[in-house]
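Notes from hallway chat w/ T.B., transcribed later so I don't forget. T.B. wanted the structure written out for a chain they're using in a teaching module, and asked if we could keep both sequence and structure tokens in one place. Agreed to drop them here.
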Amino acid sequence: MRIALDVMGGDHAPKEIIKGAIAASKEFDLEIVLVGDRLAIEGVLSSLPKNYNISVVHASQVIEMEETPVSAVKNKKDSSINIGLQLLKKKEVDAFVSAGNTGAVMSSSVFNLGRIKGIERPAIAVVWPTLKHHVVFLDAGANAECKPKHLYQFAHLGSIFAEQVLHLSRPRVGLLSIGEEDEKGNNLVFETRSLLKKSKLNFIGNVESKDIFKGDIDVFVCDGFVGNIILKFAEGLISLFQGLFKDEFKRSFLTKIGALFMLPTLASLQKRTNYDEYGGALLLGVKGVCVIAHGRSKSNAIKNAIRVAKESIEANIINKFSQI
């Protein structure tokens, strides 16, 4: 298995990205193809242990985070994102991973790989921890404006992902709205619900955002505008609670002693809620396994993003999507 990794994308590129690649190569027994500036890559590799399965493909350009995605993809044809996805298109690698400009990764994926038949818009699928098991949430930001048929397609993509990658039998699909009742929601929700009721999916109906972390629904569907707001809000909320815990434990000698006894529990909780452990989000709907990691990803997050790619390849997820 060979996985291409955009070394130039993300806030901590290239060193943390490369360290994550080496960790993944060792732990998952993979060949990682580092895509980016060869001199920069070799400079980092020279300072790291040599027992890894790594190769390098040079890319002379970098798409920065603040660049307009579509124009950057067109104007920077030799960017690490474009070159990595071209490797995937040519089947020289089995998947592509990037912590770079999300819009550029999506645009380049559509341009280089093409959409799966029957899917008009690709969607970003995020895996959430819940009280019971992991669930999938989409779209998390690929499409700010959607039509009912797009959400209908997202529901099918998410259901297959939950079944094949999360190993959930007959996944329960919920449509995010402002209330569970059929009369709650906007026109997009009304029309999408009507389509999903007629589908063969295990459609539960409207669900609220408070249901996301309960684990009673396996697939949450919404447009990318709402999805990205929920995603960023959840990240902020987790950071808030982590900060509050630290402040409380520093208040007195007794709370510090209590913290010592709670360290294993707190460490476990932090691991369950840390995006580093989930690695990246799969871009569903394109003809290839493409994983988008968080822009702030460090080595552990990159290692786990590569794990997500590996698991998606092993699940033969692209062929399963072709059956929609």
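Follow-up for T.B.: The chain has two domains: 1-119+285-324, 121-278. Might be a good example for the class.
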